[in-house]
Amino acid sequence: MAQAVSSCSSTGLLFHGSKRESSPVNGKVSYSKQVASSQELGAKSSEFRGHAVVHSSGNLSLSCNCKAIQAVLASDKETVTSGDLKGSILRKKLNKVVLAYSGGLDTSVIVPWLRENYGCDVVCFTADVGQGIKELEGLEAKAKASGASQLVVKDLKEEFVKDFIFPCLRAGAVYERKYLLGTSMARPVIAKAMVDVAREVGADAVSHGCTGKGNDQVRFELTFFALNPELSVVAPWREWEIRGREDAIEYAKKHNVPVPVTKKSIYSRDRNLWHLSHEGDILEDPANEPKKDMYMMTVDPEDAPDKPEYVEIGIVSGIPVSVNGKELSPASLLAKLNEIGGRHGIGRVDMVENRLVGMKSRGVYETPGGTILFTAVQELESLTIDREGFQEKDRLALKYAELVYAGRWFDPLRQSMDAFMAEITKTTTGTVTVKLYKGSATVAERQSPYSLYRQDISSFESGQIYDQADAAGFIRLYGLPMRVRAMLEKGL
């Protein structure tokens, strides 16, 4: 298929309008006859292989820094006359699409929908980020029964923890005071793998099942744009007529797709090796207390053991490396702490957060191992980072968290900030013992060979390095601006 849009130096933009969008026909870009005026251009723009295409009543010329884009506009649909989709009306012809696949109802119906509407081969992709072995059982059979040509599964657990979780931990990234970014960190590692799979199987597009109200659509697509701007992106929830579970079931039956028989949870959950999130049902009202049986990773703190447990975390340059003296791989270390923290009810968070798309949402998170690690790393930093460095790191951590939450993992700003975090924590090495007791994780011991804490200086006893008499002059100079202002106010 000829490409009607030439490439630009900048990442392509994606616009979504009505269902009648531009589509390539015989190497040209066609447009809907419903577009009647220039005022409608913004709403009727559409995406073609990662580049912006704007409708017009005649030929289109869109300038880029590198070259002009020209497209000839005709009609907006293409009729397929061969294969099992004979007579179907396509939005745009794609060759092969890699779909982020979970095996649930939504992604199961996306498979035939993509084939019907884009005339493409569908390759399903599932990432193992620690969601649990049960989530992966029977996926290949489900995917092929839905019409996919194949299922690709990749184990991303070690990469997820080492290259995504641990950098955020080292940075001290927490979104809006509470959220430890469990879902936010997982999406870019999954999307990165999808780009890799698309290259491996020769796909020209990727697709996901994220809704148009959530953050995940942004996280997936910004990663696609950053790593391969030539890929087309298909987001069915922003295009199709399906509006709920009943519509999806009806569509599945119509296309002979086996409807998953698993019991549907009343909550919307996302689980990976770092956390488990809960949304929906009674949680949509912030006035409702979560039900006790909702939690899955942690016991109720009231039911936790009556005796505290101590766990020692070994840290090298801001990165955890061992538990109770035993060195473990990143994923194994986190899994071990999830088990330990879970039985003591550690890491429950209930919060109302500001979504990237503008609305507020209420979520409940379980992050047992992550909470222990955050406590340990931050406590060790209190020994190894001086005051100015500590304050600057905390200031940048807020921006770092915002970038990760917004899906800008591959943004040069986050990568540059990560270099700072690696430098400022290069001496954050040592051990921290954390006391776990009925939902709380508190520091018991901290030690570092690079500790800036000096007992001979900090002691209340007089010493040679710090002469208490020096404080008088320091206070007079430090307080001089306040003293001058008071003198002015009193006419002195």
Structural features, described:
By secondary structure, this protein is an alpha+beta fold. It folds into 4 domains: 1-78, no CATH class; 94-254, 3-Layer(aba) Sandwich (Rossmann fold); 268-385 and 425-447, Argininosuccinate synthetase, chain A, domain 2; 462-489, no CATH class. The chain has 14 helices and 22 strands. The strands form 7 sheets. The protein has a 5-stranded parallel sheet, with helices on both faces. The chain has a 5-stranded antiparallel sheet with strand order 18-17-16-21-22, with helices on one face. The longest helix has 20 residues, at 182-201. The model is unreliable at 1-77 and 79-83 (pLDDT under 50).
